[in-house]
Amino acid sequence: MHPTITNMIDVVAKGEADKIAPLLAEDVTFMPPTYYKTWTGRAPVAAVLGHVGQVFSDFKYRRIMGEGNDWALEFQCKIGDLDAVGVDLITLGDDGLIAKFEVAMRPHKSIGALRDAMNARVMKDPSFLVFKDALS
To answer: Which domains does the chain have, with CATH numbers?
Structure first.
């Protein structure tokens, strides 16, 4: 397995943005499952993923598929008392850092709970005022 993927598995579930950031390319793009917009840039994406790691509980990767620069990591977690499953679709750049990170999840009710929990957290995080231009 690629070392970036191995490291990501260790840090994403913990929600530690400072440990996630070094795994991300400077111009990384992140497509969340909660809306059809894209976050761009290492600092904003690390912040978003850090918050997600705090919202999810009982997070674990079930299957890891891929090779080279293209990876799919199937996960399961809880959002409050709701169960969710999803897939992290990750593309690594030639430098081995995460260049693209897209998340697909189900069921719909759990995605709504994730959106609500993330909005509540982000509204309390003053750094997101700086990051608003990173969303397109």
So the answer is: 3-124 (3.10.450.50)
